[in-house]
Amino acid sequence: MKSKTSFYSKTWLCNDLRAYGWFGIVYTIFFFCMMPLPTLLSYSNDNYNTNYIMKIFDFENFFINIVLLTLPVLVAILLFRYLQVVRSYTIIHSYPYTRVQIFNSHILVGLILLLVPLLFNTVLMIIINTIVGCPTNNMFYLSWFLKTSVLSSAIFIISSFIGVIVGGSIWHLVFSYIFLLLPVGLIIMVLYFLNIVVYGFSDSYYSQANYLCPLIINNMSSFSVGVNMSIIAYIIYIIIFYPFALYLYKRRNLENVSSIICFNIFKVIFKYGVTFCFMLGAGVVFCYWYRNDESLIRFLTGGLVGAVIGYFLSEMLLQKQINVFRKYKGLLIYSLVIIVVVMGFKLDLLGYEKRVPKAKDVESIEFYCEYSHRFFWNSYYSEYDTEEMINSIIALHTEIIKERPTEGNAINISYMLKDGNSIKRTYLIDGIEKYDQYYKSLFESIEFKENHYALLTNDQENIYNANIYPDSLKENIIIKDPQELKEFISIAKQEIIDESYEDMKKSINLARINFYGNSKEGHNITLDVQLKSNYTKLISWLKEKGYYDDIVILPEDISEMAITTSYRYEDKEDIFNRTGEYNYIYIKDKGKIQQILNSRVNISERYDDTKDMIVYIKYNSIDDIKTIRISAERAPEFILKQ
Question: Which superkingdom heads the taxonomic lineage of this protein's source (predicted)?
């Protein structure tokens, strides 16, 4: 009769449960006190706190999050502590059980201790919900149990894997958390390095890196976009690290019990992994701490210092001695490899920096241009798929690669190719005038304007009024007469369509217009447009209807102006009492006041134009003093001469 060999041992399972069962009981009581008990108490007081329960089950409770991140590691340390002690290691492996049975028994016990308390309290919450009837759905609790189970299992399996390869409980604890944080930290530092060394490297990958780290528990939130990505990542961790840990457990030797790392291959990985992480970390620190200078030279300088520290520190830990400085050959080989890799990136051997897809291969383009904030009130990522826009963006991209600017306004380009692949690039553009011809073709296109002015794509019948908010202290104007509103919308749309790039550059924002209406789905919508100085037809219509003088600042509204090239906080009343510390230019002439108003800077330019002048305005009708900014490039001649 053939013998049947189980993959775990009932004896070991029962022994571990007797030894560590108290752990599961404490864990169960903790969750009972944090979830079912407050719920029952709130029902008894007729004061059910939905927000409290939602925060618990949406991973917003600090104490529960800490427990979920620490208990799996502690359970792994308790169950595999015998591997770090020679006597215990020898005795346990002398029993008539296979290593597979012993290892799997510990894994099963760990999962029981971690998952049964979660299951018990989840079932209890569902029972309470069913009997009493609370506003949350039972699937909400089941979803929470699934997420916490996957999270706890992933952390426990990874920590068990660490326990197999290290030789000490303290190192087990330290390396567990280092390893759990390593994926996201390493990826972010590598991306940071690539962002410096590779021209045009897109930084859009940063936001996805944290889904790889089990310790970033907010990724599991039911309201998080990345919840599915996180669960999949944790399941992959379990699938990879469980068999790997079992394989290593079967091959772990008694001779290496006292070593920090018990496998030679992992000693090499540890040494050069520490060296690599220290190199990247020091490079990032050097760039950030020294005036935020993200130059390659500064990164490599910091990287060299970090690599030396990391290499010899890892040698000291592995050799358990300080005198390791003669073993520098490995560092030299490592440095040579890094130099070759960096030179490969700088020489663009893979053609990454010069790659621009052909228009015929592009399905659509997601495009964002920070410079467009100067001219478009709503400026964000937009997708384009017309031949005209694809050709215009590719032409701009080609010119950027040719000029290789490194400072200025951000541009993000993401190509979706017809073959299913994508190309993403990020650039900083200086010397805007160099790219005027490309911006002209982009900003004047109907598709670009429609993506930034929702008014163009909404039917007039869906809009019920327009509010004009002056950029001054005047009251807002409401246009709701159907005939006037129809005319106003029609003229506004035509002004936007006809506006040229040259007009955008020299126009002044006089007021903000909000069109209020309902979408086709019945939702309330607000459509933003700027009333610009070059919208002559719209301004003529406002004057004809008698609205214009109530919207814009007129010279007749102003008593006096004070102009300075430097801003400093002081009592504004002192400025006009001639006691200010700066030399001001004072203007009362109405004609000159009008010239100054015509030199104003657009709202969106007020924070990025370093050549602005500050203008303090004293109004006739109010006591408060307001400020505007005027462009030094467009300032009247009489100001520049003073």
Answer: Bacteria
Tokens 């308790």, residue?
78
**Residues in a beta bridge with 478:** 467
Q: Distances in Å between the alpha carbon of 229 and those of 56, 64, 177, 224, 515? A: 21, 22, 21, 10, 39
319, part of any domain: no
Over the stretch 289-301, which tens digit does the pLDDT of each residue have? Answer: 765 556 778 888 8
Q: pTM for this one? A: 0.74
301 is a domain residue: no
Of all residues in the chain, the percent with pLDDT exceeding 90 is 23
What DSSP character marks residue 458?
S
Taking the CA atoms of 294, 295, 296 and 297 in sequence, report the sign of the dihedral they define.
Answer: negative
Which residue has tokens 């015509």?
Answer: 598
Q: Could you give the CA distance from residue 559 to residue 574 in angstroms, rounded to a whole number?
A: 16
One domain, residues 141 and 166: yes
Element (DSSP H or E) covering residue 347? none
Residues 150 and 188 in one domain: yes
Q: Residue 134: phi, psi to the nearest 5? A: -100, 165
Per-residue model confidence (pLDDT) at position 594? 87
Mean pLDDT of the chain: 82
pLDDT at 161: 94
Domain's final residue, options 524, 550, 576:
550
Number of domains within the chain? 4
d(CA 117, CA 31) in angstroms, rounded, equals 7
C-alpha R_g of the chain: 34
Q: How far apart are CA 630 and CA 47, in angstroms?
A: 58
Which candidate, 180, 182, 154, places its Cα nearest to that of 240? Answer: 154
Bridge partner list, 369: 411
Cα(392)–Cα(369) distance, integer angstroms: 13
Q: How far apart are CA 630 and CA 637, in angstroms?
A: 13
Same domain membership, residue 91 and residue 152: yes
**Which residues constitute the domain of residue 386?**
359-451
Q: Is the C-alpha dihedral spanning 252, 257, 261, 264 positive or negative?
A: negative
Sheet holding 409-417, edge to edge: 382-384, 362-369, 409-417, 422-429
How far is C-alpha 349 from the geometric centre of its chain's CA atoms? 30
Quick check: 303 and 280 in contact, CB under 8 A? yes
Check whether residue 589 and residue 514 sit in a common domain: no
> Domain boundary residue among 516, 531, 550?
550
**Residue 218: C-alpha distances to residues 226, 527, 538 (Å):** 9, 34, 49
Structure token digits, residue 548 = 């214009």
Residue 322 inside a domain? The answer is no
Burial of 431 (0-12, 13-18, 19+ CB in 10 A): exposed
For 432-443, the DSSP string reads: GGGGHHHHHHHH
Q: Are residues 536 and 602 in the same domain?
A: no
Would you say residue 305 lies in a domain? Answer: no
Instruction: Mark whether 508 and 368 lie in a shared domain.
Output: no
Give ∠ CA 509-510-516 in degrees, rounded to 5. 95
Measure the CA angle with vertex 509, ends 504 and 515; round to 5°. Answer: 100
239-242, Cβ contacts within 8 angstroms, sequence gap of 24 or more: 241/157, 241/158, 241/160, 241/161, 242/107, 242/157, 242/161
What are the phi and psi torsion angles at 274 (to 5°)?
A: -65, -40
Q: pLDDT, tens digit, for every residue of 171-192? A: 888 888 888 877 777 887 888 8
Claim to verify: residue 491 and residue 409 sit in the same structural domain: no
Question: Residue 589 has which token pair?
Answer: 């002439």
CA distance 350 to 344: 8
**642/640 Cα distance (integer angstroms):** 6
Residues 127 and 92 in one domain: yes
